[in-house]
Design goal:
Layout lengths: L14 H12 L17 H9 L3 H16 L3 H9 L13 H12 L22 H33 L6 H39 L16 H7 L4 H4 L14 H8 L16 H15 L1 E2 L4 E2 L22 H7 L1 H8 L4 H6 L16 H10 L7 H6 L1 H11 L15 H4 L2
Antiparallel strand pairs: 1-2
The structure holds heme C (HEC) (6 copies).
The site of one heme C (HEC) has 22 residues, from helix 9, helix 12 and helix 14.
């Protein structure tokens, strides 16, 4: 053991804050008393000290960035990584030293379990926000049946008169004329209304082309971002791992789900969306196994896979070029500060970590892209831009003065060819 490395009992911290942080960042993969995706963490500081002769500094380094620690050739770090089938634990560089100590302190000094149990959420059905469309359809149906009924009436009357040899008796003629007059107006009114409705629908459709804000299709598995990214604090890029590297963010394959759901076979979380239940969530988890060809009772794979067919929500037309890496890596800091969001993804996709189901948070039109390019200052100091825009930057400085704020439009963000093939 390193001589300066402090012993386990040298850590002091705030157990309550440690618990909150643990639940937010670690509970997806660790429990205190048993193995989950990673080892049990109850009393981990003492255990590592007794069994491995490792002090608290090792733990701090591991939690901060285990990849770096492994890369430095640390023996135990590599050993435990192999022991856990090289499942990668996320780095937690965003946590401060004190926060990490709070977590460690909590794992050694967990507060006594509380008795409270949350009442199950009432099983009311979710509020239906498709009312306008539903109301339109019902109105339409009522009008249509009215019309059919009128036609039917008129037809019967006409038939009746024909049957009687074309000679209308005065009384009948009167009543027919009356009836016809009476219903004719209703019929005209009905037809007028229908025409209006059709025109309104067509107009809505036309202004709505390409604008899908709010689009939220039903998915083959009820996958909750609020539970994964919000409650469990799993990093967006753990699942959408190509956002950093290229054009698309990608949807995770079933293998990624199995990293965790190999073990997590049922839902035991506190958060339950209105109208859902723990049993419902557990059933949804079982659908992953059907897709992966996995038998959770004996943890074996049959080899018969059936990929989950997620319904795509965001989809630009083919003639548009949009690149995630450009916005997440090069533009990331600039966008975060311009929009005041914690994670760059939220600037365009909204607060996904609070959505039970993802829906389109913006209209994703050309105007929307351009508006942001006009407003957002380019971060000329980051690695990427320093390299790519070195020459341009000099030119821009001459053109606008060295103190001027350079927004995306100045580096070509309004040029047709940049966004269109
Ligand atoms: C995505 C899953 C995941 C998350 C989230 C995660 N870990 Fe881990 N952790 C692991 C895995 C898996 C291992 C086993 C080593 C390996 O495979 O890298 C591990 C190992 C560890 C170890 C070494 C334990 C030992 O017995 O050697 C510690 C300490 C640890 N994690 C702490 C944390 C803390 C603290 C957090 C939250 C801030 C956290 N982990 C979040 C997956 C995770
Ligand atoms: C545990 C894995 C996981 C994590 C973590 C995760 N996602 Fe997802 N994401 C998915 C899956 C699976 C889908 C496809 C199903 C759906 O649309 O809900 C998806 C869909 C999406 C979509 C819609 C894609 C489309 O079809 O257009 C967006 C946007 C998105 N995620 C953003 C995020 C953001 C932002 C975060 C972080 C706050 C995040 N995701 C965290 C798994 C994950
Ligand atoms: C990093 C770990 C991790 C990954 C990866 C992961 N999950 Fe989960 N998942 C969890 C945890 C933790 C819970 C909550 C369990 C609890 O609280 O009892 C959960 C809950 C669920 C639930 C029930 C709640 C809900 O969202 O409806 C479903 C369904 C689910 N996961 C599907 C998936 C699918 C599909 C994937 C792959 C696209 C996936 N998960 C990837 C950790 C993970
Ligand atoms: C500048 C706005 C912007 C930012 C920032 C952004 N996205 Fe996107 N995202 C888009 C657009 C536009 C699309 C549609 C792309 C297409 O259809 O080609 C999209 C599509 C997606 C999709 C669907 C699959 C795909 O790649 O086409 C996922 C998943 C996604 N984004 C996740 C993320 C995550 C996670 C982050 C943060 C790391 C993020 N996005 C940041 C604008 C953004
Ligand atoms: C939230 C703000 C924001 C939105 C919305 C946005 N962008 Fe950008 N975009 C940026 C920033 C910031 C940069 C500069 C990145 C850098 O520093 O290189 C950029 C750069 C670009 C570039 C490179 C420009 C060049 O000169 O090389 C293209 C292409 C681009 N965006 C396309 C799009 C498209 C297409 C959309 C809409 C689907 C879009 N962007 C929406 C902020 C945004
Ligand atoms: C910052 C990126 C960006 C720039 C710059 C840009 N466009 Fe677009 N453009 C888009 C996006 C995104 C769409 C798709 C909008 C949709 O699907 O709603 C689009 C759609 C279009 C359309 C199809 C009609 C429509 O509105 O849906 C035309 C035509 C078009 N652009 C022409 C141009 C021309 C001409 C220029 C140069 C003056 C230009 N665009 C510059 C992003 C851009």
């Amino acid at each position: 053991m390193n001589a300066q490395d402090a012993p386990a009992d040298a850590v002091s911290g705030d157990a309550a804050n440690g618990e909150a942080l643990f639940n937010q960042h670690c509970a997806a993969c660790h429990k205190l008393d048993s193995k989950l995706i990673g080892p049990a963490l109850g009393g981990v500081a003492e255990r590592l000290q007794d069994e491995q002769g490792l002090g608290v500094d090792w733990l701090r380094k591991w939690i901060k960035n285990n990849e770096e620690l492994r890369a430095s050739g640390d023996e135990y770090a590599n050993q435990v990584f192999e022991e856990y089938n090289e499942v990668v634990m996320l780095p937690f560089e965003q946590l401060s030293d004190q926060e990490i100590d709070d977590i460690i302190y909590f794992t050694s000094n967990p507060p006594a379990p509380k008795e409270e149990k949350k009442a199950a959420a009432p099983a009311t059905s979710a509020t239906d926000n498709s009312l306008p469309l539903g109301a339109l359809l019902i109105g339409f149906a009522v009008l249509a049946s009215l019309l059919v009924w009128i036609l039917f009436r008129v037809n019967t009357l006409v038939n009746l008169t024909k049957q009687e040899g074309g000679a209308l008796e005065t009384e009948q003629a009167e009543s027919f004329a009356e009836t016809f007059e009476k219903y004719k107006n209703v019929a005209y009114a009905g037809m007028g209304l229908i025409t209006l409705l059709v025109l309104y629908g067509a107009w809505q459709f036309m202004i709505g082309i390409g604008v899908d804000k709010g689009y939220q299709p039903e998915q083959p598995i009820y996958f909750s971002h609020k539970i994964h990214a919000g409650e469990q604090g799993i990093d967006c890029q753990y699942c959408h791992s190509s956002a950093k590297y290229g054009k698309v963010s990608g949807i995770p394959s079933t293998n990624v789900c199995m990293n965790c759901h190999y073990q997590i076979q049922e839902y035991t979380g506190d958060y339950i969306e209105e109208g859902k239940s723990a049993e419902f969530y557990t059933e949804e988890i079982q659908k992953i196994y059907a897709s992966a060809g996995f038998d959770p009772s004996n943890l074996t794979y049959s080899g018969e896979e059936d990929p989950i067919e997620w319904v795509r929500i965001h989809n630009m037309p083919d003639f548009v070029y949009f690149n995630h890496a450009q916005h997440v890596v090069a533009g990331g800091e600039a966008i975060k500060s311009a929009k005041g969001v914690e994670q760059v993804c939220f600037a365009c996709h909204g607060q996904v970590d609070e959505m039970d189901e993802v829906k389109m948070a913006n209209d994703f039109t050309m105007g929307w892209c351009i508006e942001c390019h006009r407003e957002t200052k380019v971060d000329m100091e980051n690695e990427y831009n320093k390299e790519y825009y070195a020459q341009l930057h000099e030119k821009l400085k001459k053109q606008y003065g060295s103190e001027a704020e350079i927004t995306v439009d100045a580096i070509g963000g309004l040029e047709c060819g940049k966004c269109h093939y």
